[in-house]
Amino acid sequence: MSIHKKSKYEVNIMKQAGNIVALVHAGLKDAIKEGVTTKELDILANKIIKQNKADPTFLGYHGYPATICTSINEQVVHGIPSDEIVLKSGDIISIDIGATYKGFVGDSAWTYPVGEISEEKQMLLKATEEALFAGLEYMKTNEKLENVAGAIEDTAIKYKLGIVRQYGGHGVGRVMHEDPFVYNYRTNSKIILQRGMTIAIEPMLNLGCDDVDVLNDEWTVVTKDKKPSAHFEHTVHVTDDGAEILTKLL
What pLDDT is stored for residue 1 in this prediction? Predict the structure, then answer.
């Protein structure tokens, strides 16, 4: 395993990449409403990324055909935008966004309500966002990466939610996926966090079971029991004082 620590200069570029990702999230949040297609959201995301002199990281990544991932209800991750997928009131939609700026990647996901959603879905969104920030509490120099995973797992247990185990967080830098992989549950990892590491933390929690399937499009991941899933992700920089969130508005 080779974990690349970033210089202050490199972190500053990643902040700019992360700011672009945050701008896309802000634009899409305003656009999410009943009757909008996921393809319309994808077109808007592409426009904002290009306007900010960045490139859409996901587009063409291992053949992925779109700028963003749009995963609705029981879809966990990697949902492909389409003209045929129309948002309905009561849906939840997870939007995963990557932007590459001056050779460095920003990566962040958030789950949004469409109109009024059920109390169960409200709880799922609240709990998964809480799990993200519980994990971020441990993102500091000399802390164990295992404690990040444990905080996410403990939050899922508290709310009696399933944990997606096949997917998780990861290092981010010149490429979207660097070492280390970050599980959302305890694995006895011995990795110690160090200043300069830049890592995406991304809990994916389900209202039902842990298990997931991949659809015939070979991308879209869905819960096996078809119950809703939520996904929250920030790219952060490990510092002596804690997690510096890179995917936020500057």
Answer: 83
